[in-house]
Every structure is written in structure tokens, then in C-alpha cells.
Amino acid sequence: MTQIDFNFTDSKSQCAKLLAELKKKRRLTKLMMLNELGILNGGGRAWDLKHGKYDGFEYPVEMEMVPVKTREGRLTKVAEYFLDEAQTSHIPSSENQGHDARQ
Fold it and tell me: Residue 87 and residue 7: Cα distance in Å, rounded?
């Protein structure tokens, strides 16, 4: 019997990838997170960052529903995640993340 290796990336490294992109002032949809970063549950990783589950720091991740066109040309809305610009001064630098930054 052949064993399947799914090569899953753990949630902490997915959070790190997502955080790095959000710090570049990018606004990302779940589809962008999947296609560009390989993060299947992008909304969950955004929630982890917002609620301190990544490294103990609660990042100011916000979500906005934005209109997009479907393949059929109809209008729908999707969630777009970004860092709140007003709160970015409180974000620890990458070399001083999480618990160290709160001391």
C-alpha cells in the first residue's frame, strides 16, 4: 500500500507567510492566499493573526467585503483581508515579533 504525503504546511508558517504579505500593505482574498501563498484556509490564518494565536500578538487584521465579477459576468462580493493602517505602528518588526515585543 502506498502512503500519500500531502506535504502540509503548518499553520504557524502559513501565518508567517500571510503576515509578511499583509505588512507589504497588500489586500488579499482567500483565492489569492491559495494561489499565491499556498494557504488553503486563508480566513482561518487571518483570524489566528487577529486573535493572537500565531505568536501572542494581536495583529490589526481587518476584512472588507469587496465586489468582484464572476466568470458569468455577475457581481458578487468576496472577503478581502488587510492590515488596519491606523494600527500598523503597533506591529512588532519581524525580528522582534510576538512575545518579545509585548514586554
Answer: 35
30-54 pLDDT, tens per residue?
999 999 999 999 999 999 999 999 9
Q: What is the pTM of this model?
A: 0.78
Per-residue model confidence (pLDDT) at position 6 = 52
Measured between its terminal Cα atoms, the distance across the chain in Å is: 51
> Which residue ranges form the domains of the chain, and what is each CATH number?
11-102 (1.10.10)
Is the Cα dihedral 32, 24, 57, 7 positive or negative? positive
CB contact set of 61 (below 8 Å; sequence gap of 6+):
22, 46, 47, 49, 50, 81, 82, 83, 84
Cα 79 to Cα 62: distance, rounded to the nearest angstrom: 10
43 residue type, one letter: G
